[in-house]
Amino acid sequence: MAFDTAAVKEVLDKVRAEGRAALTAPEGRRICEAYGIPTPGEGLATTEDEAVSIATDLGFPVAMKIVSPEILHKTDAGGVEIGVADADAVRQAYRSIIANAKAYDASATIVGVQVQQMLGGGQEVIIGATTDGTFGKVVAFGLGGVLVEVLKDITFRLAPVDRDQARSMLDGIQAADVLKGARGAEPVDADALAGVIERVSALVTDFPEISEVDLNPVFATGSGATAADVRILVETGEVAPRVERSPEEILASMRRLMNPSAVAVIGASNEVGKIGNSVMRNLIGGGFEGTIYPINPKADEVEGIKAYKSISDVEGDIDVAVFAIPAKFVAGAVDECGRKGVGAAVLIPSGFAETGNQELQDEVVATATKYGIRLLGPNIYGYYYTPSKLCATFCTPYDVRGGVALTSQSGGIGMAILGFSRTTKMGVSAIVGLGNKSDVDEDDLLTFFEQDDNTTCVAMHLEDLKDGRAFVDAAQRITKKKPVVVLKAGRTDLGARAASSHTGALAGDDKVYDDILRQAGVVRAPGLNEMLEYARGLPLLPTPKGENVVIITGAGGSGVLLSDACVEAGLSLMDIPPDLDESFRKFIPPFGAAGNPIDITGGEPPSTYEATIRLGLEDDRIHSLILGYWHTIVTPPMVFAKLTADVVAQARAKGIDKPVVASLAGDTEVEQACDYLFEHGIVAYPYTTEKPVAVLGAKYRWARSAGLLGQV
Amino acid sequence: MAFDTAAVKEVLDKVRAEGRAALTAPEGRRICEAYGIPTPGEGLATTEDEAVSIATDLGFPVAMKIVSPEILHKTDAGGVEIGVADADAVRQAYRSIIANAKAYDASATIVGVQVQQMLGGGQEVIIGATTDGTFGKVVAFGLGGVLVEVLKDITFRLAPVDRDQARSMLDGIQAADVLKGARGAEPVDADALAGVIERVSALVTDFPEISEVDLNPVFATGSGATAADVRILVETGEVAPRVERSPEEILASMRRLMNPSAVAVIGASNEVGKIGNSVMRNLIGGGFEGTIYPINPKADEVEGIKAYKSISDVEGDIDVAVFAIPAKFVAGAVDECGRKGVGAAVLIPSGFAETGNQELQDEVVATATKYGIRLLGPNIYGYYYTPSKLCATFCTPYDVRGGVALTSQSGGIGMAILGFSRTTKMGVSAIVGLGNKSDVDEDDLLTFFEQDDNTTCVAMHLEDLKDGRAFVDAAQRITKKKPVVVLKAGRTDLGARAASSHTGALAGDDKVYDDILRQAGVVRAPGLNEMLEYARGLPLLPTPKGENVVIITGAGGSGVLLSDACVEAGLSLMDIPPDLDESFRKFIPPFGAAGNPIDITGGEPPSTYEATIRLGLEDDRIHSLILGYWHTIVTPPMVFAKLTADVVAQARAKGIDKPVVASLAGDTEVEQACDYLFEHGIVAYPYTTEKPVAVLGAKYRWARSAGLLGQV
């Protein structure tokens, strides 16, 4: 679309030159025209006669509104009349609007009265844009009236949006059916409405000085969308451009952080219980194969390794320095690191912004920036990268290698990640503490994990984003290839309050986060446990090839609950075609239920599970299987687990790889069976019908938004 | 309220005598008048002149509608005109309505034209009543237009409702704020609106032959509520009264089932792997102290106990007969049981209604009814009652006694209950399989558990209710004293479909279930795992004395997630008063955050946890504690667990007993710490911030609806 940017610039320059934050209605209209946003026919009248003439041209009824740069709340000023029906009424309205305006603010400049075509019919919607503290320019769409104001039924996207994204916003509200012609109304012209959203998003992107746009209401009919009222606000001060690092630059520094040849430990100690001792033990105990340089002015060696008084005494190159010294010494040591050419400083110490000491943190950041050192932390437990056998942390070593990279903003959550990983033997590539995020943040890590062949899935706990736009950019790239799970803490108003007192971060409005994380292709976990379970399960499940999910269950009762869970997780139970139904029926008792769930009934031998699972895997119309197992003497838990693993392995050997998840109902032996199934690539849980389905649902959410199912 | 029931009876008798299902508008109006439900001023005109005269009396504008018993869809017939503005327009409307009606249905009886006061302004709402398959008469309330039709924003209650219950319906919709004057509108007269709901509920209760009432729209203003359109439908056939057992009768039979002196096993067997053998072994192995009579025509003894060829050969009394014989022999054996005076038959066999063999099931029920035998099942795993050391099941014995009684409609879910109980050492009073529920159902068991001192909490998995009203009656009684958790399977449309194919039960609309279960005081679990965790946790938590919840956490990150979870669970974080804040601050580092969550920070020694938890317990303005633990070297997991258990025990010794739940973030040692805490009455989970808060939330939901917090 070609826009008249010159016209917009002219209006904005004038407004800003005059030190105004708000545009007048005619200015707003001019901007809409320049960007092809339809507004009602109108004219500016400076006399009664002019008002009558304009109204006659437009056709009655008309709306009339005061135009004055000083009067923003026109209704409050008695400066609005609607439904003005004929010439006499126009005259009367003109007089009363002018009189009211003068009474409201005697010093206001009265430019005139705007006479506007009355719009009506169709559906009232709101289209807007705002400048979010985290994400920058975002566009918003909602239905007018009660739906937006009482039910908060509104949706956001990062600007700019293309036409498809804009159209997705129409489906992004709860009351979407209203736009499609619910209750016998005419469906709105979705393309015209999406066009207005797209144009607003382009406008605020092209002109960052526009801080807010409100088109409220926009009348959407079957043949178009017209903005009846336009409100535009601008920044009166300077608008600073965003500073960005190139992906190449980020990658180079992250590679050095994750695959260091030499690591120094500043504050390395022989005293058990001290952080500087724990870090040394973990580096050694974790099996790090590069060089370790303990730095300690008073020791000759630490944990059996030659120590140095200062980092400048070290002869070789140092990629990473892990800090285990009090906060007040950090800035000085970072300066030494800079002079030594260290690539990254891992700042375990606390006592910075999180305790109110922002100044000290700023000093450290300034020093690091001077030398181009990347900072991880401060206020973190450290980090793990298993392919490098690197455990640069005061926790305990972890060595189960696998595809999941996990990060956390909070140390407590980091410890929960570690404990959960160990107890479930979760294969991990990285665990990274981000803490205060004075420098390295989620987008740096996503940029690294995107190209890291050791990582197949990322899970992140975060409380805020320092640069939401950089996060979305990085997330949109990686999620095309690998799922990213995000646990956003401070989801709720109450939670957001706690986030704010904890980190000093301004927690964004959750609805903005929710919509934009989805736009970024991220799978949001509703809670900590779900984040961990998704992280554990997603790498095991192959990407499904389509939406057809089939439940095979030995317990009808589980089938019902698994169906409930499918709806909850946004999964589609396949409508089984008659020939396939017939094929399943061959294996199950006559009183079993085919259809979907397929209820093979409880008393069946292993061969029935085996035959039906095999059929489910081999029929290529089925894309995913959910198994419901019921513990019986005829088919004990481990028999079920082994036969299932075998059938799945046989199918894989034939090149058939579908997601298979299982819910096991039975006595405690089902726990061992679930462990066995997990070890064989099948996501399986005891005593729950919800969890396995939720993990499958998460895989589908990712696959859909990555465009891997052929449908978004 | 005194109603003119005679007037209603006269109308209904006439309608039913004429074989009509629908009342005319004047009939509907007469019924509304008899029950004090305001309707617009109106009159019936049979001539143009009459129409003009009525309209003039009412005041213009008016609405005009055809009155004809044959024309139900008046708008379709061109039989409605609204906004009729003056006398001429009334004449014209009269003519065209009559002409349209004749054209629509030449044979229709035209009674005349109804001339009605036009209502407007205020808020359009819908008030109705319907006859639900499960619950009988229910009343419904919602907002008119898009909100009800697109967003399904509607709420239900079992009829009759009192004024308070009716008012709770106004708050039971999402868009409740609309009624309170959102967007500058006048708040509606809530009492008037509740009055209409109450009257409609009384009407359908007094006259069960009314199958449906639709007041749509009702105009609610600041000073009243008027039903603009009334639609009433009646049953044309006979309306059978409900058959009820008295609680005393139910109790007597349930006590005999749960505390039998003698149990017969019909089909007892020595052959390992047979159900008749498993049941015998479990009765013996479970330690049942009453008499066991194996019944087997071919054995002299079974599992070392003297066997009988037939139940009639047994000399002593038999309270319970457990059936382990094929379906086809069941009816005959029940007849023998009847002649022997057996109290209850526990029907393990399948092959009845669940496989389509309803006839066989009906025959068994008829036989049992003849003798007054209560039937459990068929198609079940049996039942456990630990106070009687009774394991009458083919599963395995379970002997951890405790306060939870669990029931399940499905065998698979029963096995999950058993496995979960065993692995978590959950203290159980009963586990009961209900299967096809040919006789004994949830309300029988609730009636027993209500007065059973061994039971402090009930958890039920159900797919349908045979008699929703009996369930609500029983639930309303017991939930005043003990929490009842319900997992209703078939929650979703998809789930409901599966329920229907599984049990042949007509799964009710979930919204009706949801509202009415809440009205019954039941805590609904969203899934199987939650049902089990609530069952495990609720009996451990004392009933909170108020809404003030405080989070004490060693990890700020957990604090944020715990706050999120509180909002999710409907809990209120206490606003800490300044003096209490000051008291907490004495124990925590200066950079820790008081307020709520209270962030004691991560590096603190056991004494900090101890002092803050003690303060939280001892200050009587605080009603519940949520603890967030972060694994450190200074305060390892078991140290935290023991100190917490000690502080809680000390408080209990002083008579202070508050709910305490904990989330433990750390390495795998936190799992052992959680087990320890559970054993000491503190609900604690590793690697999740959501679960402990959800359990506390469930306790609060119950306590609120039982009126134990002084607020509903």
From TrEMBL, chains A, B:
<dbReference type="Pfam" id="PF13607">
    <property type="entry name" value="Succ_CoA_lig"/>
</dbReference>
<dbReference type="InterPro" id="IPR043938">
    <property type="entry name" value="Ligase_CoA_dom"/>
</dbReference>
<protein>
    <submittedName>
        <fullName>CoA-binding protein</fullName>
    </submittedName>
</protein>
<dbReference type="GO" id="GO:0046872">
    <property type="term" value="F:metal ion binding"/>
</dbReference>
<dbReference type="InterPro" id="IPR016102">
    <property type="entry name" value="Succinyl-CoA_synth-like"/>
</dbReference>
<dbReference type="Pfam" id="PF13380">
    <property type="entry name" value="CoA_binding_2"/>
</dbReference>
<dbReference type="InterPro" id="IPR032875">
    <property type="entry name" value="Succ_CoA_lig_flav_dom"/>
</dbReference>
<dbReference type="GO" id="GO:0043758">
    <property type="term" value="F:acetate-CoA ligase (ADP-forming) activity"/>
</dbReference>
<dbReference type="InterPro" id="IPR011761">
    <property type="entry name" value="ATP-grasp"/>
</dbReference>
<dbReference type="Pfam" id="PF13549">
    <property type="entry name" value="ATP-grasp_5"/>
</dbReference>
<keyword id="KW-0067">ATP-binding</keyword>
<dbReference type="GO" id="GO:0005524">
    <property type="term" value="F:ATP binding"/>
</dbReference>
<feature type="domain" description="ATP-grasp">
    <location>
        <begin position="29"/>
        <end position="65"/>
    </location>
</feature>
<dbReference type="InterPro" id="IPR013815">
    <property type="entry name" value="ATP_grasp_subdomain_1"/>
</dbReference>
<comment type="similarity">
    <text>In the N-terminal section; belongs to the acetate CoA ligase alpha subunit family.</text>
</comment>
<dbReference type="InterPro" id="IPR003781">
    <property type="entry name" value="CoA-bd"/>
</dbReference>
<dbReference type="Pfam" id="PF19045">
    <property type="entry name" value="Ligase_CoA_2"/>
</dbReference>
<keyword id="KW-0547">Nucleotide-binding</keyword>
<dbReference type="InterPro" id="IPR036291">
    <property type="entry name" value="NAD(P)-bd_dom_sf"/>
</dbReference>
